[in-house]
Amino acid sequence: MVKISFQPAAPKEEKENDKTEILIPHPAEEEEELVLPLRPKKSPLNGLCCLTFGLVVFMAGLVLASIYVYHYYFIPHIPEENLFHCSVLYEDSAYAPLRGRQELQENVGIYLADNYEKISVPVPHFGGSDPADIIHDFHRRLTAYHDIALDKCYVIELNTTIVMPPRNLWELLINVKKGTYLPQTYIIHEEMVVTGKVHNMRQLGPFIYRLCNGKDTYRLNRRLTHRRVNKRDADDCHRIRHFENTFVVETVICDEA
User: Fold this and answer.
1) Distance of alpha carbon 28 from the chain centroid
2) Would you say 143 and 136 are in contact if contact means Cβ atoms under 8 Å apart?
3) Which residues contact 48 (CB under 8 A, 6 or more apart)?
4) Which of 13, 54, 74, 116 is 20 to 30 A from 22, alpha carbon to alpha carbon?
5) Residue 108, CB-side half-sphere exposure with 13 Å CA sphere
6) Spatial distance between the Cα atoms of 246 and 165, rounded to a whole number of angstroms
């Protein structure tokens, strides 16, 4: 506080008793209140809420993963409008003088979204070839043959020089859909040999897994040089004729020597 005194002119004897005092508050001397922030108390409900939220997220992820596995490994995909029933006439130079033109029929499923093809070859009319289901998985770069007569599966790397990609094959079949037969064509031969058994089926992808699960499945290698198969070797070799191009392919699968 600042103290100011006024002293009026008066006789000396009144100076001591006649003083007027005025007190003016000084702002610097005002009392200031210091307010400290209150520290919030931790509630046990916060930890419980975090734990509950974590469990909900974990269970949701587990449910989604289960749906994915069930959808891709146990439920077959239904194509939209990509199923074709095809027939092709071809000539085999080895049998041309005796049989002339031969006919091959098959059902083709093209799955553009999943980038694979499924081919079903029924029992042929002419014999000498086994009925089969074939999958060309362009995502995994694998081909699987299910020999229905033997009930065995064979897996090999996809040969893109022979097998058309799904989009190209789909366009080819769309272009010939108005007719019953593909143009007359020829046949080529490829020979493969069994190299060993497959034990981990899931590494082959969901589409081949559905085709071959529960069946004896073997790895194949291609033989670069074709050898003449004699009668003794014929018992150990099996043929599957199919087409996924403008020509027919005869795949010869032989057991290990």
Assistant:
1) 76
2) yes
3) none
4) 13
5) 29
6) 13
Q: 169: closest CA among 107, 106, 246? A: 246
Report H helices in 107-212.
166-175, 206-212
Element (H, E) at 97: helix 96-99
pLDDT higher than threshold 90 for residue 201: yes
Residue 186's pLDDT is what? 86
In three-state secondary structure terms, 98 is helix
Q: Calculate the alpha carbon distances from 128 to 13, 112, 132, 239 in Å.
A: 150, 32, 13, 7
- Cα-flanking dihedrals φ and ψ of residue 220, to 5°? -125, 155
Which position has the token pair 């999943």?
A: 114
pLDDT for 218 beyond 70 = yes
Task: Kindly provide the residue ranges of all beta strands, DSSP E only, lying in 70-223, ordered along the sequence.
Answer: 83-91, 101-111, 116-121, 132-137, 142-147, 152-157, 181-197, 216-222
